[in-house]
Amino acid sequence: NKKAFVELLFWKSPAAVREMTEGYGSLREGEGAGRSRVPPWTPQEEQELRELYWKYKEVEGEDVIAAILAHLPAPGRTRRQVVKQLVRL
After folding, report:
1. Arithmetic mean of pLDDT, 6-29
2. What's the confidence (pLDDT) of residue 31?
3. Over the stretch 50-59, which tens digit does the pLDDT of each residue have?
4. Which of 4, 18, 30, 41 is the most buried if burial means most Cβ atoms within 10 Å?
5. How far is CA 24 from CA 15, 18, 34, 36, 67, in A?
6. What's this model's pTM, rounded to 2 decimal places?
7. Contacts of the segment 45-52: beta carbons below 8 A, 24+ positions apart
């Protein structure tokens, strides 16, 4: 690549560097930062999350997120995903 020196002038993420070294289009194969690994929240899961939040938000001395995770019917959700979704809602 004759113009690679121009690309070196700007900050690169590890995924962009990998794409530069392995060839452009390598990220389109479903690997790297461009791919979302978090399954989207369904409307039913969002409703359940709302209900659990309103149920456990007033309980003193208990971690609200831990209580929600314990009673959330969708397995595999992390604490960060639940907090992010609650903020979004």
Report:
1. 73
2. 52
3. 999 998 888 8
4. 41
5. 11, 9, 13, 19, 45
6. 0.56
7. 45/72, 45/73, 45/74, 46/85, 46/89, 48/72, 48/73, 48/74, 49/82, 49/85, 49/86, 49/89, 50/89
Please provide the distance, in angstroms rounded to a whole number, between the alpha carbons at the two ends of the chain. Answer: 46
**Angle CA 12–16–22, to nearest 5:** 135
One-letter amino acid for residue 64 of the chain = V
Q: How many CA atoms lie within 13 A of 12 on its CB side?
A: 14
Instruction: Tell me which residue has tokens 């409307």.
Output: 43
* Burial 56-72, CB ≥16 within 10 A → b, else e: beeeeeeebbebbeeeb
Q: Domain residues of the chain, as ranges?
A: 39-88
